[in-house]
């Protein structure tokens, strides 16, 4: 959920002090990149999984405080909406059979959390956007009890000066106004972390940007918002619009959005933090007591609290992370592209596929990003959000190709090579890459299953709201089998 804050309002003096402090943090961070010892001897992978709470009627259950108290596990935390929770999976190396152990542990933990949630009359569902969520559910008492979220809401609307306009095209276009950032809470995702060295960060971030389009196309799972069928991964556009601090006039001037793909390949992690400070005003100008320059001069590791807090309010799809654990600094690439769900097996397949591809791409002699424009990578991402597994994407030496052809010809072999380099056991690669291969062969991911099921139910005479509810009921039942979504029945 990000670091908590101590207040919900900030004055002019506070903002001026914050601006000076964050520039000091940036200067110290630049010095650290040149001289500090970052922890990267054994790169770790990590995962965060966001979920929705639903009641017995498959409507959102605004009860995360009670459910989290019952779960009573620090790995589970609040998210923006009172019907959202997040599971922070402990980090680990990827080598050997750890992928299979990871799957078993994640499933065991989620099942235990589900059992406890049921004691509070709730269930947990992993899905990109809850299809039974309607605007009336977000009219009141929708936000988690958190000063951070209240402050974020107030700061976004202070910057905008007007209500949010949500306008998304698609088969059933959506148009509405929102007086809070509540629509953002509809967007639930999984985040993948990889610890890297300062020298290797740029190659890994660039590679992750190249992969964002294919990743999203294969993993799309958010076709419905507020009863409207829109994009295969509508979460991308809904998230962008529901956190937009820019009124139309600033959009017309070309001011950058806070949900940002970026605009160029980088040569250092410093490029990203420098852009954050240069382009984006602070939303949460909390000032700590730390003197980062003095800490570094005395041989200690500065927390750089202001830089980290600000970074958490610039919503890059691949976010740079600076963190300190047991007094040692480290860097991570946080991949925020994928939606949650449908099953643990699907999410682990997405993760293993991504890590294998990232390893291969980041170590190529002739980097793929030197063969394609940044604009092409962004266009792939947008096409994947709209069309999902049916998208056509650009790839060097292939031109514009289908997701299926790209995955079979390039991505699956590349992922397997990368997993071999990680030292991943063959049975792990076979299981999870086999799921990706099956998904492509069937032409079915979470988004296509949802749409096909709703269509079939409506063809049988169900009203749209009833069809969405019945689809979600079937989704939940299949989710608990842990059978990959491409094997799910459609009727």
Automatic annotation (TrEMBL):
<dbReference type="GO" id="GO:0016879">
    <property type="term" value="F:ligase activity, forming carbon-nitrogen bonds"/>
</dbReference>
<protein>
    <recommendedName>
        <fullName>Glutamate--cysteine ligase</fullName>
    </recommendedName>
</protein>
<dbReference type="InterPro" id="IPR016602">
    <property type="entry name" value="UCP012666"/>
</dbReference>
<dbReference type="InterPro" id="IPR006336">
    <property type="entry name" value="GCS2"/>
</dbReference>
<dbReference type="InterPro" id="IPR014746">
    <property type="entry name" value="Gln_synth/guanido_kin_cat_dom"/>
</dbReference>
<dbReference type="InterPro" id="IPR050141">
    <property type="entry name" value="GCL_type2/YbdK_subfam"/>
</dbReference>
<dbReference type="Pfam" id="PF04107">
    <property type="entry name" value="GCS2"/>
</dbReference>
């Amino acid at each position: 959920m990000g670091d908590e804050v101590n207040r919900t309002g900030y004055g002019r003096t506070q903002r001026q002090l914050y601006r000076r402090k964050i520039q000091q943090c940036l200067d110290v961070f630049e010095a650290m990149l040149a001289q500090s010892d970052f922890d990267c001897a054994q790169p770790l992978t990590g995962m965060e999984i966001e979920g929705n709470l639903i009641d017995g009627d498959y409507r959102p259950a605004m009860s995360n405080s009670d459910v989290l108290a019952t779960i009573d596990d620090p790995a589970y935390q609040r998210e923006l909406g009172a019907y959202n929770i997040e599971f922070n999976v402990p980090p680990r190396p990827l080598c050997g059979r750890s992928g299979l152990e990871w799957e078993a542990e994640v499933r065991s933990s989620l099942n235990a959390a589900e059992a406890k949630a049921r004691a509070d009359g709730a269930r947990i569902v992993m899905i990109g956007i809850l299809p039974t969520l309607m605007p009336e559910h977000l009219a009141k008492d929708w936000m988690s009890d958190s000063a951070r979220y209240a402050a974020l809401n107030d700061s976004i609307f202070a910057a905008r000066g007007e209500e949010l306009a949500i306008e998304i095209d698609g088969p059933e276009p959506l148009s509405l106004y929102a007086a809070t950032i509540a629509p953002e809470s509809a967007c639930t995702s999984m985040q993948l972390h990889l610890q890297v060295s300062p020298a290797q960060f740029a190659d890994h971030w660039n590679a992750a940007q190249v992969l964002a389009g294919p990743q999203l196309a294969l993993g799309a799972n958010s076709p419905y918002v507020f009863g409207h069928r829109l994009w295969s991964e509508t979460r991308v556009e809904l998230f962008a619009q529901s956190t937009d601090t820019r009124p139309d006039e600033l959009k017309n001037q070309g001011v950058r959005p806070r949900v940002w793909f970026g605009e160029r390949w980088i040569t250092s992690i410093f490029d990203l933090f420098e852009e954050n400070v240069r382009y984006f005003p602070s939303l949460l100008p909390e000032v700590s007591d730390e003197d980062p320059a003095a800490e570094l001069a005395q041989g200690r590791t500065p927390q750089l609290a202001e830089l980290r807090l600000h970074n958490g309010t610039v919503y890059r799809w691949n976010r740079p992370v600076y963190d300190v654990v047991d007094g040692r600094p480290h860097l991570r690439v946080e991949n925020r592209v994928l939606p949650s769900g449908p099953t643990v097996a699907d999410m682990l397949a997405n993760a293993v596929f991504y890590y294998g591809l990232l390893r291969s791409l980041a170590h190529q002699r002739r980097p793929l990003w030197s063969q394609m424009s940044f604009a092409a990578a962004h266009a792939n991402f947008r096409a994947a959000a709209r069309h999902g597994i049916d998208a056509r994407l650009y790839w060097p030496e292939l031109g514009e190709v289908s997701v299926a052809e790209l995955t079979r010809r390039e991505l699956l072999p590349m992922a397997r090579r990368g997993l071999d380099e990680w030292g991943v056991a063959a049975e792990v690669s076979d299981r999870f890459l086999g799921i990706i291969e099956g998904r492509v062969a069937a032409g079915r991911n979470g988004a296509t299953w949802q749409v096909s099921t709703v269509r079939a139910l409506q063809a049988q005479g169900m009203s749209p709201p009833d069809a969405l509810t019945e689809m979600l009921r079937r989704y939940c039942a299949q989710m608990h089998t842990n059978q990959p979504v491409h094997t799910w029945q459609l009727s």
